[in-house]
Amino acid sequence: MESIIKRIEEQIAGFAPSASVEGVGTVRETGDGIAVIDGLSKAVLSEMVLFDPSHDQSLEEALLNEGSVYGLVLNLEEDAVRAVILGDASNVYEGMHVRRLNRLLSVPVGDGLVGRVVNALGEAVDAKGVVTDTSLTPIEREAYGVMDRAPVNEPLHTGIKAIDAMIPIGRGQRELIIGDRGVGKTAIAIDTILNQKNESVEKRPICIYVAIGQKESKTAKIVADLTEQGAMDYTIVVTAPASSPAAYQFLAPFTGAAIGEYFMDKGRDALVVYDDLSKQAVAYRQLSLLLRRPPGREAYPGDIFYLHSRLLERAAKLSNEKGGGSLTALPIIETQEGDVSAYIPTNVISITDGQIYLQTDLFNKGMRPAIDVGISVSRVGSSAQTKAMKKVSGKIKLSLAQFRELEAFTQFASDLDADTKQQIDAGRRMTEVLKQNVGHPLPFEVAASVIFAATNGYLDTVRPEDTARAQARLQDYLEREASETLTRIKGTGEIDDATEKTLRKALEAFSTSAL
Amino acid sequence: MEKQYAQALFNLLHRSEEDSEQLFAKLEAHLDTVGRTKLLPHIYRELHKLETAEERQKESIEIAREADRNSATVELTSLGIVGEPVVNPSLITGWRAKGNGSLIDHSGKRALLDLYQQITTSH
């Protein structure tokens, strides 16, 4: 309290009117969240401006009025400037005084944001008070160049067997999650965040979940789930709900990227989930049309590709000279009727380093996560896998592809030879092994051990329809009876000869006793 | 098209020595000739916007009190700002000069508001 009083005394003592020159303008017209401003001849693109009602008010009115609103200059025209209003647009009126702030739009970043829920401007919205221990950084910045980057070779474990085995994600990669509504895209992202709890504190990435255009009830439920599971200790949520202005939905992903870059620049790992970029594209389209920018295909502006490419290029794995940190991006795109050849999906597919494609048909058949491994890909591949996972998952994708062909064949062939039946049963069993309940990510050592068991015949005596139960018992058994083996796999990241021996011993004991 | 017509009319009103009534009459006659009479109300609305914008961009010098006129004039002159100040008591003390897209706010009101902002956002 003493220090606060002292600081106020110093500020009052140093009080004096300043005589600095400011660029000013006047609102000519406003509507739909956009203000057309006369003057501001020296304004730059993406500069912040302040709609200042106090210019025409008395001191008392100005102190009582909370009507100052910020704006973002997005159009520089011949005789006026168009700015997006970042706040309550009803506080902006014709003739209102506007001041240039001589800085680009900046948001607070820092360790103080961890565990908090903020809006697109970095303001806390979780009723836990003002965010402290932060510094301001521009919301947009150029991505790191080629020479500052290092190859992606460290795994980011999602805890989802199908992904970690066949579509592995590395730290610094951009992996798209794409599918129709209600197929489990957000579930994959949230499970990835939850799984980071299984990492050691030093290696655990800071997770940033950016909710764009989502229902507030959905975001609230996600925050509650993350809090319940202890994941909010390393997670930041940036929310721009469906009820927020289009400007906030446009800016929120950039805020998430800026927050993630803070940790990356400090040599730490960060993970940012953009849920979802389709809504950001729609918000940007709305803004662009209101700014009278010429519409292109599907009424999107001509720079819609650049919107996503400059955002996603900010994900990187930095070289050791730059601190070795990383920012992994998991953008989400919602398709309509499974159409991956639409405009926005194809744009983002061409930007990212792979995609996880979720199929509605698979979801409805009970295959969850409903990942179509045939067309899902990770362009980083096994470079982002531990040796343990690489060892056990080598041939899964191929064998599943063969199984799918055979499975189609069984629909019209009634008499199958024993080998074919065995292959089909093995495929069905593996499909069951890859199913996983939502909200239950698996540590990679457990996942690798389960897949090892499946690919080495330890579950061959189990009927395909009983595989889920057997798998649950196997997991339980390994955690109880083979915890040392699991710890060794986790510590070394591989299944060497000695570890394989003990693992096989444990699996044989399990097969004998439990199956 | 109305914006372009309004801008042209605005330029003529400021450049030409002709009477404004005559210019308006000529505009109406021209629009009648090209069959665009319906644009007239829109043109006048745009013209009003241009005139309002110009009015707002005009240079202005305000002082807080009549008693400050001399001291304010000295300070303004030293900054190269000349003009006839208008009294605006809401400034509390000091002066404020605006023109050519720039503002110098040397008023007590602005200083107090900035101080309030500093104190309330940092504590």
Description:
The complex is a heterodimer of chains A (515) and B (123). The mean pLDDT of chain A is 92. In chain A, helix 11 packs parallel to helix 14. In chain A, strand 4 and strand 5 form a beta hairpin. Chain A is an alpha/beta fold and 515 residues long. In chain A, strands 8, 10, 11, 12, 13, 14, 15, 16 and 17 form a 9-stranded mixed β-sheet that branches. In chain A, strands 1-2-5-4-3-6 form a 6-stranded antiparallel beta barrel. A two-stranded antiparallel ribbon of chain A has the order 7-9. Chain A is elongated and about 90 Å long. In chain A, 39% of the residues lie in helices and 19% in strands. Chain A contains 17 helices and 17 strands. By secondary structure, chain B is α+β, with helices and mostly antiparallel strands. In chain B, 59% of the residues lie in helices and 15% in strands. Chain B is built from 5 helices and 4 strands, in the order αααβαβββα. Chain B has a 4-stranded mixed β-sheet with strand order 2-1-3-4. In chain B, strand 1, helix 4 and strand 2 form a beta-alpha-beta unit. In chain B, helix 1 crosses helix 3. The longest helix of chain B is centred in the middle third of the chain and has 18 residues. The N and C termini of chain B lie far apart (53 Å). The interface between A and B is medium-sized, with 32 and 32 residues. Strand 1 of chain A pairs antiparallel with strand 4 of chain B, so a sheet runs across the interface.
Helix content of chain B: 55-70%
Uncertain regions spanning at least 5 consecutive residues of chain A: none
How much β-strand is present in the residues of chain B? 5-15%
Q: What string, H for helix and E for strand, traces the elements of chain B in order? A: HHHEHEEEH
Can you tell me the overall shape of chain B? elongated
Briefly note the structural class of the backbone of chain A. Answer: alpha/beta
